[in-house]
What does this fold into?
Amino acid sequence: MRLDKYLWAVRIYKTRSLAADACQNGRVKLVDDGRELKPAHDVKVGERYSVNIDQLHKEIEVLALPPNRVGAPLVQGFMIDRTPEEEYERIRMARQYAFEKRDRGAGRPTKRERREIEEFKYK
It folds into this structure.
């Protein structure tokens, strides 16, 4: 089975083309030697892959090859998620602090406040 088809079948990526793009852009690597993999790489049972999805760095291990795309409850029969819990916690914290909260009735930020927010967020 092709790597892009496997990543789509076990619901790592929403579409097969997104999975292929991730492989072509170097976001999918073999854990053993750190090699970047192409979409046509043959998936073998027991291989471990490091997959970068936006800011999340997942690590998965292949248990079996699905015949085609499987439902979410069945994914656990085809792969093991070896991603450390600290990685999920880091993403939760980033999402929690990713937005600004303004008091109700405070209105839109002034130009000065907006610049302070931008400086705080991006520097």
The two ends are 44 Å apart (CA to CA). Helices lie at 3-9, 16-24, 85-96, 111-122. The mean pLDDT is 91.
